[in-house]
Each structure stands twice: as structure tokens, then as C-alpha cells.
Design goal:
Layout (H helix, E strand, L loop, with lengths): L2 E7 L2 E7 L3 H21 L5 H74 L1
Antiparallel strand pairs: 1-2
Helix pairs in contact: 1-2
């Protein structure tokens, strides 16, 4: 459902429709307003448009870097999942080998007992 929200950025009011809750959009607009005004305050001859462009570039830079970090994290997680799967497979193989060795030990112990009994009866 679309929510209607009114926000003010650099003294100009905007009527927006958004899927987000109104408070989220209002907070974004306040942060945007603060950033644009901060850039404008740092220079006497910068226009609202130029300040908005610089703010947009900064936001895009942050988003791009965040996506790069997210991609790196996904790659790391994929590596960890692959390593865990390999470790599980190695563990399963070791368990099978251990069971096989236990069976061999039991057979050897039985053979030794049989030999001992045979030696005792002869």
C-alpha cells in the first residue's frame, strides 16, 4: 500500500508516495536536508542544485561501497559454507573408516580369542 508523505527539503515541500512507513521517509528527507544545507553552508556561492548533486554523489558512493562490502561478505560466506561442507564430508568419511576399523579390531580380537581357545584345547 502506498503511503502519502509530505516532506520539506531546502525550504521546498514535496508530496511523495512510498511503500515505506511515513516516519522512515520523513527521516530520510531530514537527513538529506541536513546534508544539503551543510554543503551549502561550507561555500557562499554553491547553489541548491550543486549541493544536491554533491549529496547524491556521496549517497551513491556510500551505496556502491556498501554493495561491494555485501558482495565480499557473500563471497566469504560461500567460502565458509563450502569449507563446512567439505569438513562434514571428511568427518563422515572418517566416521565410516572408524567403524570399519572397529569391525576389523573386533574380528581380530575374536580371531585371537579363538586361537587362544584352540591352543588351550590342543
Amino acid at each position: 500500500m502506498l503511503n502519502k508523505v509530505r516532506v520539506t527539503i531546502c525550504g521546498k515541500e514535496y508530496a511523495l508516495q512510498t511503500d515505506e512507513v511515513p516516519s522512515y521517509t520523513i527521516n530520510l528527507a531530514k537527513k538529506l536536508d541536513t546534508q544539503i544545507n551543510s554543503i551549502m553552508a561550507s561555500s557562499d556561492n554553491i547553489s541548491v542544485t550543486a549541493a544536491a548533486v554533491l549529496t547524491a554523489l556521496g549517497a551513491m558512493d556510500e551505496a556502491y561501497k556498501a554493495n561491494e562490502n555485501l558482495d565480499n561478505i557473500r563471497t566469504q560466506i560461500t567460502g565458509y559454507v563450502d569449507e563446512a561442507a567439505k569438513a562434514r564430508a571428511e568427518r563422515d568419511e572418517a566416521v565410516k573408516e572408524m567403524e570399519l576399523l572397529k569391525t576389523k579390531i573386533a574380528c581380530l580380537e575374536n580371531d585371537a580369542k579363538l586361537k587362544k581357545l584352540k591352543d588351550m584345547t590342543t
